[in-house]
Amino acid sequence: MAEKKPSLGQDIAWRLEAFAYDVAEALARAFPIDAVSDFGAWLFTRLGPLTSAHRVAETNLRIAFPEKSDAEIGALLAEQWAHAGRWFTEFPILDRIIADPSRVEVVGAERLAAIRDGAGPVVFISGHFSSFEIMPAVIIHSGVTCQITYRATNNPYVDERIRRSRFRYGVRLFAPKGTDGARELLRALSRGESVALMNDQKFNGGVAAPLFGLTAHTAPGPSSFALRFGIPLQPMSVQRKDKARFRVVVHEPIRLADTGDRNADIEAGVRTINAWMEERIRERPAEWFWVHKRWPSELYKRKRR
């Protein structure tokens, strides 16, 4: 079925957004890396609290850390905006960051080498930690053949530019949609290729599993793929060391139990992944992407009352 053609007004709006992206990218590439990162932190700590996303982030932090005082929540809010701003302004220059070996430390690189040399395939999993775009670049640069998934933006002109930016540091992206996307990932795994998926955002209709003690609907895909092919989940995370300097951690692989009850095993896998995500978030809470509505919608309505 052909995609619906946008209206003239929508097309103009999209083109204006793309022009704004081009201007921001050109400015970012004209300045030193750390200056761009610092500007992003400065800008978002001032503009972020003025947006509706600020209320979402505050609600999420209060859900995750009910024991924290108002002052502690306020400090985390400010810090997470600084991290979000750094990520936002660093994205157009990630190729420059990745090209500088002193800026990206990889812990557990031997695991990637083993996957490349025949220990794979694996299902890479991660969340929106720090400058999370660095993770796929590290996977690809290690020599691992991997389908890197992402969610395409609504604006096709901006999406084209995002793909172009990622192309600069070697990442080719695959944007799965529905059952066709799942089939393509299955074909990749059948060819002996790895796949990489983010597994920390709300997935309506997904498995209801706890995250910070509350139900969070989570995509079953990574667990389902791992169980179907009898391969491990390979978690990775990105940590910010200082300004635009990072540590990418290739964690111990997770092997899911296969009891023969596929639905129960998938649910157990999702619970394991959520527990791993929660542990990473608790370790470095300011570096997670708090502006996403991760829990059921009624929790956010209730918090507004």
3D structure, described in words:
The structure is a single chain. The chain is built from 12 helices and 9 strands. The model has no long low-confidence stretch (mean pLDDT 93). By secondary structure, the protein is an alpha/beta fold. The strands form 2 sheets. A 7-stranded mixed β-sheet has the order 1-9-8-2-5-3-4, sandwiched between helices.
> Spans with pLDDT under 50 lasting ≥5 residues?
none
The sequence of SSEs as H and E is HHHHHEHEHEHEHEEEHEEHH
Portion of residues in beta strands equals 5-15%
Largest sheet: 7 strands, mixed
| Biggest β-sheet: strands ordered side by side in the sheet | 1-9-8-2-5-3-4
Distance between the termini: 43 Å
Number of strands: 9
Give the CA-based shape: globular
Feature tags:
two-stranded antiparallel ribbon; 305 residues; 12 helices; alpha/beta
SSE inventory with pairings:
Blueprint: H1 8-28, H2 33-47, H3 52-64, H4 70-90, H5 94-98, E1 104-107, H6 109-119, E2 123-126, H7 134-141, E3 146-149, H8 156-168, E4 173-174, H9 178-190, E5 194-198, E6 207-211, E7 214-218, H10 221-229, E8 233-242, E9 245-250, H11 262-283, H12 297-304
Parallel strand pairs: 1-9, 2-5, 2-8, 3-4, 3-5
Antiparallel strand pairs: 6-7, 8-9
